[in-house]
């Protein structure tokens, strides 16, 4: 996700990177060509005038705008829930490590559980994006345990289970009382909820038919728009139609990006930076050396 400092109204007019404009330029070019054709033919197709005007197009446009608003709300709800889940993952991970460090007689005893916890975080990130977690697992838990974890189709859940096994062993060995074990187990449950919630969002997209209906409606309206405006706006039709098409098509494109919060689009969650932030947070509590922050190129920042 691209996060910028607050910018002036004038600079916002020319923002390119992170906007959906680069991805919809072909569509806008097509709409401009249709608008020029409508002006050149005075709104006629095969010699017949299309019986549309601005008055007829207005209620259709208003209805479509309301429909797009509902679509964007549904998409943002998925994005917002994903953001909260990863925020809870950070909170629970930090609390778990902090409690381990306070409850155990030696801070070094918390290292195996901490490393497995971080393995669960990074494995979840890779599962949500469909990428290979091997490099991160090798770095965190070593080749042998990484191999064992990857045998489970849900690597993040397997790593979390390994943390719980470690806590049970510490309890059996007398290093954790029952009350403290229950406190730690409650944090593990919260982490499991964040993992399960993220998997639910990733595996349950917005119904396909809903997106297809909106997509077809947007492009049909934009295609007919110049034929409805040409009598009223004449040579200004291409300019007005491209601007209106940009608004509608861009809203659909933004909704599609935001609806997939774990993807690689500029407006998706920055899971690389968020996972690294969790790692730095728990390692700082443990007094261990910190890895470098995940920073973007150029002047933008990831969060």
Key traits:
two-stranded antiparallel sheet, two-stranded antiparallel ribbon, disordered C terminus, single chain
Map the helices and strands:
Layout: E1 2-3, H1 9-12, H2 21-40, E2 44-45, E3 48-49, H3 54-103, H4 111-129, H5 134-150, H6 155-172, H7 178-203, H8 208-233, H9 237-258, H10 271-286, E4 301-302
Antiparallel strand pairs: 1-4, 2-3
Outline the structure in words.
- The chain is 72% helix and 3% strand.
- The radius of gyration is 26 Å and the shape is elongated.
- Mean pLDDT is 90; it is low at 297-303.
- The protein contains ten helices and four strands, in the order βααββααααααααβ.
- With 303 residues, it is mainly alpha-helical.
- Helix 4 packs antiparallel against helix 10.
- The protein has helices at residues 9-12, 21-40, 54-103, 111-129, 134-150, 155-172, 178-203, 208-233, 237-258, 271-286, and strands spanning 2-3, 44-45, 48-49, 301-302.
- The strands form two sheets. A two-stranded antiparallel ribbon has the order 1-4. A two-stranded antiparallel ribbon has the order 2-3.
Total number of helical segments? 10
- Count of discrete structural domains: 1
**Mean of residue pLDDT values:** 90
**β-strand number:** 4
Proportion in helices: over 70%
Cα-based radius of gyration, to the nearest Å: 26 Å
Termini gap:
6 Å
Largest sheet: 2 strands, antiparallel
- What spatial order of strands do you see in the largest sheet? 1-4
In terms of DSSP E residues, the strand content is: under 5%
Oligomer: single chain
Structural class of the helix and strand makeup? mainly alpha
Give the H and E element order.
Answer: EHHEEHHHHHHHHE
> pLDDT under 50 segments (min length 5)?
297-303
Tell the overall outline.
elongated
């Amino acid at each position: 996700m691209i996060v910028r400092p607050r910018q002036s109204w004038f600079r916002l007019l020319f923002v390119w990177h992170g906007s959906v404009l680069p991805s919809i330029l072909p569509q806008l070019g097509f709409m401009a060509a249709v608008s020029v054709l409508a002006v050149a033919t005075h709104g006629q197709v095969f010699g017949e005038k299309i019986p549309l005007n601005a008055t007829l197009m207005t209620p259709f446009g208003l209805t479509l705008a309301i429909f797009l608003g509902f679509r964007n709300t549904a998409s943002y709800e998925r994005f917002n829930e994903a953001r909260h889940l990863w925020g809870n993952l950070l909170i629970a991970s930090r609390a778990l490590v902090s409690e381990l460090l306070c409850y155990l007689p030696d801070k070094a005893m918390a290292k195996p559980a901490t490393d497995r916890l971080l393995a669960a975080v990074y494995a979840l990130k890779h599962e949500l994006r469909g990428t290979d977690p091997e490099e991160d697992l090798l770095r965190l838990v070593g080749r042998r345990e990484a191999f064992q974890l990857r045998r489970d189709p849900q690597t993040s859940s397997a790593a979390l289970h390994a943390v719980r096994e470690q806590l049970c062993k510490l309890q059996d060995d007398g290093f954790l009382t029952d009350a403290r074990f229950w406190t730690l187990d409650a944090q593990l449950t919260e982490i499991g909820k964040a993992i399960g919630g993220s998997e639910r969002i990733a595996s349950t997209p917005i119904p396909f038919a809903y997106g297809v209906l909106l997509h077809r409606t947007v492009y049909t309206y934009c295609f007919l728009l110049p034929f409805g405006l040409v009598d009223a706006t004449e040579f200004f039709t291409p300019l007005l139609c491209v601007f209106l098409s940009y608004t509608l098509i861009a809203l659909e494109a933004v909704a599609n990006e935001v609806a997939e919060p774990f993807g690689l689009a500029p407006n998706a969650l920055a899971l690389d930076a968020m996972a690294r932030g969790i790692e730095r947070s728990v390692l700082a509590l443990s007094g261990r050396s910190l890895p470098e922050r995940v920073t973007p190129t150029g002047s933008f920042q990831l969060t």
